[in-house]
Amino acid sequence: MTLNEVIKDKSRIYTGDNVPHDYLYDEYVGTAPSVHAVVLPINHDEVVAAVKYANDHDLKIIARGAGTGLSGATAPQFNELIIDLSLMNRIHGLDEKTMTLTVEPGVLLHEIQEYVESRRFFYPPDPGSKNSSIGGNVATNAGGMRAVKYGVTRNYVKEMTVVLATGETMVLGSLNVKSSSGYDLKDLFIGSEGTLGITTLIRLKVIPLPMHKLSYVLAFEDLQEATRTVAAILQEGIDPTSLEFFEREMIEISVKETGIAFPTEKGKSFLLMTIDGDSMDHIYARGARLETVANAHGVVDFLTLESAQLESDVWKLRDSLLSAVVNYTEQVTMDETVPINHVATLYAYTKDLEAEYGVQLMSFGHAGDGNLHTCVMRGNLDQATWDEKRHLILDKLYAKIAELGGLPSAEHGIGLIKKPYFEAMTAPVNLEAMRAIKNAFDPHHRLNPNKVL
To answer: How many angstroms separate the CA atoms of 418 and 422, rounded?
Structure first.
């Protein structure tokens, strides 16, 4: 079998010098010298054919989506065949009776959100990159800003069709609400970062769209006080849709990036949250309780974002944080998670490291579920100094995360760049069990080799 038999449209095949640089380059890993080829299938059968071609030619495979990943999970290393699923981007439809949306893996997150909301339904997972693909979201079990109330991608995948390393097809999960029927293979594949199979069709759960929502900004003099307030908010039963935190220095980088003004000059650290529901009276009542909690914890400004435009602007500033930091300086953005009672502890430790090494560390993230994004910033350090200090800081940070009972990744995945920390933080017996699973589904380690494990 030749590539032209796999993909009959030559415009969907790249080889040799015709392979676009984006497929070879990863921000965190660098540039690979070459890949065997890149193919862009448009249906399930072409994916199966591409996998069988890889078997016939003893090739490794990388399945790729929108290319927004942050862990080096799609970085080539072994002259792989890259299967780019971005053209498998059709929304097959919404079954309102079962509240099920059927999509292909290349559909972008914002397309799903817009499609279902136009029909008065709601797909809650909300990672920061709205241009990420749903296949990539499934591969990393992406979370995002609404996870504190609604959960993560895993909670909304009903059924998925996958192509195994052999070219065989499996359908995982079902449209049934409940199951106690054998091992849950679907959840095993979600978050596996393309190391167990290639997803070609996904059936997602959607829910009724909340009728109303309202957002708030809470300003504090320091982030430790802000993060300590989070536990009180959750314990009060205010039930926020999203509950984010960030520092003044970081939001000002986003202000410069977007040209959008932040609505308060008070405070150095902030909580941004939304409350949703079917009644504005109910939301206002919860907002009043929120203000009481905030006042008890030293809030210096409490803003209700009544204007739809103001609310949209502030959330755009939050959504733009990561891209703004990336454009500001070379950096490492982590996605660690700790029990929510240790968010303030970990943040304080980042400031200890900042003072010890003279390297700026800034934080933002999902305060309501303990998921921090700590950014280690290069600034004006020369390459040798940056390399040395970055490694020392990351080693100490991940060790502290482990000490607090945390994990190295909450939503971006392990990929290539977090493997050493993942292995150090995971019990050997757990790693061996994961390797046994990998060997059972992919004994020749053909799919996304050397990633995660």
So the answer is: 6
Tokens 């000002």 sit on residue: 252
pLDDT at 224: 83
Tokens representing 125 are 């997972």
* 253: helix, strand or coil: helix
Residue 243 burial class via C-beta count within 10 angstroms: exposed 0-12, middle 13-18, buried 19 and up: buried
Residue matched to tokens 């520092």: 247
Task: Find how far residue 214's CA is from the centre of its chain.
Answer: 24
The one-character DSSP state at 63 is E
Matching CATH topology for 212-316 and 329-425?
yes
Residue 36 pLDDT > 90: yes
Q: Is 260 helix (H, G, I), strand (E, B) or coil?
A: coil
One-letter-per-residue 3-state SS of 125-183: CECCCCCCEHHHHHHHCCCECCHHHHCCHHHHEEEEEEECCCCCEEEEECCCCCCCCCC
Strand partners, 252: none
CATH code for the part of the protein at 91-208: 3.30.465.10
SS3 label, residue 21? helix
**Beta-carbon contacts of residue 320 (< 8 Å; ≥ 6 apart):** 254, 257, 258
Question: Residue 395 and residue 89: Cα distance in Å, rounded?
Answer: 39
Among the CATH numbers 3.10.50.40, 3.30.43.10, 3.40.50.720, 3.40.50.2000, which is that of 3-84? Answer: 3.30.43.10
265: its two tokens: 């000059």
Mean pLDDT over 275-297 rounds to 97
Give the sign of the dihedral formed by CA 180, CA 135, CA 338, CA 428: positive
Return the amino acid letter for 451. K
pTM: 0.95
